[in-house]
Design brief:
The protein contains three helices and six strands; from the N terminus they run H-E-H-E-H-E-E-E-E. The protein is α+β, with helices and mostly antiparallel strands and 96 residues long. The longest helix is centred in the middle third of the chain and has 12 residues, at 36-47.
Length: 96
């Protein structure tokens, strides 16, 4: 798996903004088949920051309705990446 395929997008919510400011933690949506080692290598190579820990979770898709038809969104994987002490959060997440 290529490093550009591992990280899909950063997740920016109130909860992730507090985590970023308080504990140097960044949250990403990642490929469902990516392992913690893959995620660590991708973050270190793409952003140039050293990673301390990676926590992952599978977020289950919601059931949605359109009239009488019911469907389901896909499950996706979330990664909480904590950077080492002294490492800088990437610039594109600073103003978010």
């Amino acid at each position: 798996m290529k490093v550009t395929d591992v990280i899909r997008r950063p997740i920016v919510t109130e909860k992730t903004s507090v985590a970023r400011d308080a504990g140097n933690t960044i949250v990403f949506e990642v490929a469902k088949g990516a392992t913690k080692v893959d995620i660590k290598k991708a973050v270190e190579s793409l952003f140039g920051s050293k990673v301390a820990t990676v926590r992952t979770s599978i977020t289950h898709g919601k059931t949605k309705r359109q009239g009488r038809f019911e469907g389901r969104r896909s499950d996706w994987k979330k990664a909480w990446v904590r950077l080492r002490a002294g490492e800088k959060v990437p610039d594109f997440l600073e103003g978010a």
